[in-house]
Write a structure and sequence with these properties.
Layout (H helix, E strand, L loop, with lengths): L5 E6 L6 E6 L2 E7 H5 L17 H11 L8 E4 L22 H12 L1 H9 L7 E3 L2 H10 L6 E7 L6 E9 L2 E9 L4 H11 L7 H8 L7 H10 L9 H4 L7 H7 L11 H29 L3 E5 L6 H10 L4 E4 L8 H13 L19 H10 L5 E2 L3 H10 L4 E4 L13 E5 L5 H10 L9 E5 L3 H4 L14 E4 L17 E7 L5 H14 L3 E6 L11 H10 L4 E4 L2 E4 L23
Parallel strand pairs: 1-4, 4-5, 6-9, 9-10, 12-18, 14-16
Antiparallel strand pairs: 1-2, 2-3, 6-7, 7-8, 11-19, 12-13, 13-17, 14-17, 15-16, 18-19
Helix pairs in contact: 5-13, 6-11, 7-11, 8-11, 11-12, 15-18
């Protein structure tokens, strides 16, 4: 066995529970618990769930390396309870966050994590544990995964121990703190609150981002800015109005009108609120980026934290910030803190100076041809082996069919990147409505992303800063005006797309598929969305893929080199009926 230290990173305290195994500076495996237990976000982020560990993800990481707990040199946890102060005075729900009894329950749960780890691993690991503060774990997850030896680092999320953001300077194998943001100054919590204000769920910021494109802020812009800044030019949120800890929207209703209840119809007013939130967020990010540029003197910027999943804001940073190069780690939400905690511990506690670069997001489990065949036969599905799966799938897409593509090791992060994807023809206007309404059963206004050959991306999109993270679907960019009519299914209402660039080096089969589609159609991209329905995580195993295929109206499923076709003739690519169209007033 290598003499390089083995470090297991674990994230469990809030949500997106995950594990990561690192040997030296090299990442061996990343597991996201939700993919294994099939619960979105892995578990509820309650005061009583901090010690619910990602047991499946941990087992996957150890199994991948062929080791046991006794082989581990360190275990890095992405939370440091010593940094959590006593709660401030604010409106709270009894027994929940910020309430003394809720805090007591939460602290007790965090303190139990070593005991729970010992039970899961079958070994007393107390002396191996390192507690890495949450925001530093986010920052480490992006800087140590980036190609830069000198970079400004910005982490922004909901809350860690009590921090909500970190501005730092990464140099070689160290990260130096410049400034911390603290609760209640939380951009992540602002997005959670407004997601619920417009009738969505607290984890549905991506839907709010999509909704924002349908309107301008109008008169809501100044009110939103006051919530972010009060009487200060810096981030200084109005906690009395926002009331993060309680389901009270009275002050917001005075500013923006009645709260939209879950399930109620979303209208133009809601889009204006979303647009004001998006615009103000972008402005704050630009201000923070400018501060970092002057503080570090670096031309490189690394982003992490849940706010870094806002691809439109990232696109604005690429276009308007002073940085020439931007890296966004694809597992930017809390799931990435297992990676960051492990890398921080390797570099700071084991004195490893070599760096690892995340060139590929395909760090999850993979399955053999035998696994695929076994799942197909257990499901009693007829299947055929394809001689050239990428080309034959490209042919089906060019014919207007919509299918599931399951190939290789799973990608990490919340966005499918060509290994667990639903694919369609981006030229067909109806593809978006078909997938939203009949396949994924989700809101009609949600856009879809294009996976584009990297060598042709600049011919179709307005690309600004250099970034390897275009390969991770991290930026929303404008589609060039003359190309917009050619790809209506991946064009959002504001003329942008959240592109993923694809290379032959990192994803040869997916690149071959898109290349074949390009040859057939003249369009160097396909529509790509995550292989799941609205109420489940992205599929992980062949069995997951088959179950989701059967729940949806997909025309076909490809597992590796095996093709399954829909046999009932009810394909989703037939023309939508009037009853399937949602005549939203959002665009009015």
């Amino acid at each position: 066995m290598s003499d390089q230290p083995l470090v297991l990173g674990v994230n469990s305290v809030y949500h997106e529970s995950s594990a990561c195994l690192v040997r030296g500076s090299q990442v061996l495996a990343i597991g996201e618990e939700e993919r294994f237990n099939r619960r979105k976000h892995a578990k509820p982020a309650g005061v009583d769930t901090a010690d619910q560990l990602p047991t499946h993800a941990i087992e996957y990481c150890l199994r991948t390396a062929g080791i046991t707990a006794r082989d581990l040199d360190s275990i890095a946890l992405s939370f440091d309870l010593q940094r959590r102060p006593e709660p401030i005075t604010e409106r709270v729900t009894p027994g929940s966050w910020g309430d003394p009894e809720g805090e007591r329950i939460f602290r007790a749960g965090v303190a139990r994590i070593p005991e729970r780890l010992a039970a899961v691993l079958g070994d007393d690991v107390g002396e191996k544990i390192h507690w890495v503060h949450h925001e530093l774990a986010h920052a480490a997850s992006t800087y140590y995964a980036s190609p830069y030896s000198d970079a400004a680092v910005l982490s922004l999320d909901g809350i860690g121990e009590w921090t909500t953001g970190l501005l730092a300077h990464g140099r070689d194998h160290k990260i130096d703190e410049i400034r911390l943001l603290h609760y209640p100054n939380s951009i992540g919590f602002l997005w959670e609150k407004f997601a619920k204000f417009v009738g969505l769920g607290e984890y549905e910021a991506a839907k709010v981002m999509a909704l924002a494109a349908f309107a301008e802020p109008g008169s809501f812009g100044p009110a939103m800015k006051r919530l972010f800044h009060q009487d200060s030019s810096e981030l200084d949120v109005d906690l009395d109005a926002l009331r993060f800890r309680v389901e009270d929207y009275g002050p917001l209703e005075e500013l923006f009108g009645p709260r939209r209840r879950p399930g109620e119809y979303i209208d133009h007013r809601d889009a204006q609120v979303a647009a004001a939130l998006q615009q103000t967020t972008e402005e704050v990010l630009l201000e923070l980026a400018d501060e970092l540029f002057h503080a570090t003197g670096s031309n490189n910027l690394c982003l992490a934290g849940g706010v870094a999943l806002n691809c439109i804001a990232n696109g604005r940073l690429a276009r308007d910030s002073r940085f020439d190069n931007i890296f966004v780690q694809p597992l930017a939400h809390d799931g990435g803190t297992a990676l960051g905690a492990a890398l921080h511990t390797v570099h700071q506690c084991h004195d490893i100076t070599d760096r690892w670069e995340m060139t590929s997001p395909y760090l999850g489990p993979s399955y053999t041809e035998q696994d695929c065949v076994r799942a197909l036969e257990e499901a009693d599905l007829e299947y055929t082996r394809l001689d050239d799966a990428p080309r034959e799938v490209a042919t089906l897409l060019a014919q207007g069919l919509i299918g599931g593509w399951f190939d290789g090791a799973a990608e990490v992060g919340p966005r499918a990147l060509g290994h667990r994807s639903i694919l369609a023809d981006p030229r067909r206007p109806g593809s978006r409505e078909i997938i939203n309404l009949r396949v994924k059963h989700r809101e009609y206004f949600r856009p879809f992303a294009p996976s584009v050959l990297e060598e042709h991306a600049a011919e179709w999109f307005d690309i600004h800063a250099n970034s390897p993270s275009y390969r991770f679907m991290s930026f929303g960019l404008s589609v060039q005006a003359d190309k917009q009519p050619l790809i209506p299914a991946v064009l959002h209402v504001d003329g942008t797309s959240r592109l993923q660039s694809v290379t032959a080096e990192t994803n040869p089969r997916y690149h071959a598929l898109i290349s074949a589609f390009h040859e057939m159609t003249g369009v160097p991209m396909v529509l790509n969305t995550s292989f799941n329905t609205y109420d489940e995580p992205i599929v992980l195993t062949p069995g997951d893929a088959i179950r989701t295929f059967r729940r949806t109206g997909l025309d076909f499923l490809v597992l590796g080199d095996f093709l399954v076709r829909t046999t009932d003739g009810a394909t989703p690519s037939r023309r939508l009926s009037d009853g399937d169209r949602d005549s939203s007033p959002i665009g009015d």
